[in-house]
């Protein structure tokens, strides 16, 4: 795989960022991805500040390569997490779910490279204006929290490419090496891969959650909670509960306010829990190690490149 | 652009199929696309049998290259249209919106190459079993009628590739040459392009409709009528009417049963009419001739290929 503006900016070998996912992306996953030449990312969204600190420390002792922290801005812990990130001299932060204006300046003053996750061209432009160093442009097919415009990754990439000057990674729906090549062909400087790594051996998610990804076919996820904060989840029992609550006009915030994601992803409760993963789960048929995933991505990329170059 | 299994099957130079769109794809558009080396497609969905016959005859006199007819199976005219297609010895038919079992055998017995439009892996497999020669796999971002699973083009391509042996074109969200390369990289044997051609000089659509595509940004379309038959349309007045009717529980079929698509696309009535086009409209900023579109697609493809091959 070729080096790009993004690999140079982040100091990584391959243009592959691992999505910083709640209850999935601890130091084991992040350090393994960084050791393979991608950008490992700790998912701070499911960590209290002290736990985040532990994961950062462990990540540093497990890899001497760059890694990042994904920081959902809306979290009540985000301010405290920022202080730990600066204290621990984390090289890269990817903020999400909030205004890029909120923390970008503070982080950059501390010498940190800042990325921000966006679902739209409009927000990508705002990030550039706010001084963000790179964008993660995430489409409708991505697992977890999602944008309101429902713009797909394929539609997002060329529009983002035209709209901004800073490097960007494409995210949402990417699980194999031919798709990495496809995203680079459309002008992305790299990709972010979520669900594939959520289903890796080093992911902290529960085996039940990983099995659900493996069993999923193309129609096993849906974007729900559009009136509140859109999120793509698996069509398990909790999904049915949401549809019923929406129909009845029940309080959705209350339905959610029970640690559903932890129950589903971390504890493997398929009945009560919320399982966040992406539409590309239909393509994932086995749980591999991070090393095996990188080997596969590189082989698929090479094969695909030979195919488009050959006659 | 390289030749593929699909270009060989269809006898065309470039792996580009023009979407057979209602009120858009008459003989002018179809013959122009075929003359440029793609596959021009007449949209029979908005033509009574006698009108379809006229367009076929005119298309034949305007090009000596292969062209196709897109035939929505659910239409009450489909049986009569099939007879005309066979009588007029059209080389290729792309069926859609109905079971591939219905007409495939009859068409193949008449020596016609049969394609079928699918929104899912499941239906792609059924097409293969029914003897269909090629698939058009269309994602969530496509304009007009759409699948229930909301699978995006990026997620659909690698899954279709793994599931079937026959050639397939990717459709939905494709408007530039870098995206054509991206789709081939992911394993598609070609692409189908809709909205970009709907906004061409040779399209029979009204200028108001074309202007609406040009003005559209990334969030200007939405998938609606999910309880009836999902369709992606522009967020104009008619879109608001649908949302209100859905909220009130009014009869949606009645709301639609007023030639809305004709009013919007063909007559340019932006208030009462339904404007079907895709999410990639946000990327389309000018109305070009078919010749200019092909020139651009080839240039973009070449540039993109050089980029992924170069260091």
Describe the structure.
The structure is a homodimer of 311-residue chains. By secondary structure, chain A is of the alpha/beta class. The first copy, chain A, folds into two domains: 224 residues, TIM Barrel (Alpha-Beta Barrel), CATH 3.20.20; 64 residues, no CATH class. Chain A contains 14 helices and eleven strands. Chain A has an eight-stranded parallel sheet. In chain A, strand 4, helix 5 and strand 5 form a beta-alpha-beta unit. In chain A, helix 2 runs parallel beside helix 3 and helix 8 packs across helix 14. The mean pLDDT of chain A is 96. Chains A and B meet through helix 7, helix 8 and helix 14 of A and helix 7, helix 8 and helix 14 of B.
Q: What's this entry about, in short?
A:
Chain A is built from 14 helices and eleven strands. Chain A has 311 residues and is an alpha/beta fold.
List the helices and strands and how they pair.
2 copies of one chain form a homodimer.
Chain A (H helix, E strand, L loop, with lengths): L4 H6 L5 E3 L8 H9 L4 E4 L5 H14 L4 E6 L5 H10 L4 E5 L7 H6 L3 E6 L2 H9 L4 E5 L5 E2 L7 H11 L4 E4 L5 H9 L4 E4 L1 H4 L8 H9 L5 E4 L6 E4 L2 H12 L3 H5 L3 H7 L23 H20 L2
Parallel strand pairs in A: 1-9, 2-3, 3-4, 4-5, 5-6, 6-8, 8-9
Antiparallel strand pairs in A: 7-11, 10-11
Helix pairs in contact in A: 2-3, 3-4, 8-14
């Amino acid at each position: 795989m070729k080096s790009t503006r993004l690999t140079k900016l982040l100091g990584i070998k391959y243009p592959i960022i691992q999505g910083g996912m709640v209850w999935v992306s601890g130091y084991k996953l992040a350090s393994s991805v960084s050791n393979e030449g991608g950008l490992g990312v700790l998912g701070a969204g499911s960590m209290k500040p002290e736990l985040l600190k532990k994961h950062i420390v462990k990540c540093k002792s497990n890899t001497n390569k760059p890694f990042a922290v994904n920081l959902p801005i809306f979290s009540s812990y985000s301010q405290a997490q920022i202080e730990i990130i600066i204290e621990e001299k984390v090289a890269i932060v990817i903020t999400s779910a909030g205004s890029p204006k909120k923390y970008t300046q503070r982080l950059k003053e501390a010498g940190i490279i800042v990325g921000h996750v966006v679902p739209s061209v409009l927000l990508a432009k705002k990030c550039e204006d706010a001084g963000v160093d790179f964008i993660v442009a995430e489409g409708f097919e991505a697992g977890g929290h999602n944008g309101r415009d429902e713009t797909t990754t394929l539609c997002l990439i060329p529009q983002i490419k035209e709209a901004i000057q800073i490097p960007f990674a494409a995210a949402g729906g990417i699980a194999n090496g031919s798709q990495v090549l496809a995203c680079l062909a459309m002008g992305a400087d790299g990709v972010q891969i979520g669900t594939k790594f959520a289903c890796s051996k080093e992911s902290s998610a529960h085996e039940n959650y990983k099995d659900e990804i493996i069993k999923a076919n193309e129609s096993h996820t849906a974007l729900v909670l559009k009136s509140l904060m859109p999120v793509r989840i698996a069509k398990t029992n909790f999904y049915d509960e949401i549809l019923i609550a929406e129909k009845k006009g029940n309080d959705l915030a209350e339905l959610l306010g029970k640690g559903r994601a932890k129950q589903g992803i971390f504890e493997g409760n398929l009945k009560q829990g919320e399982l966040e993963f992406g539409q590309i789960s239909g393509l994932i048929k086995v749980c591999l190690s991070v090393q095996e995933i990188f080997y596969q991505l590189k082989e698929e990329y090479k094969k695909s490149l030979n195919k488009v170059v050959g006659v």
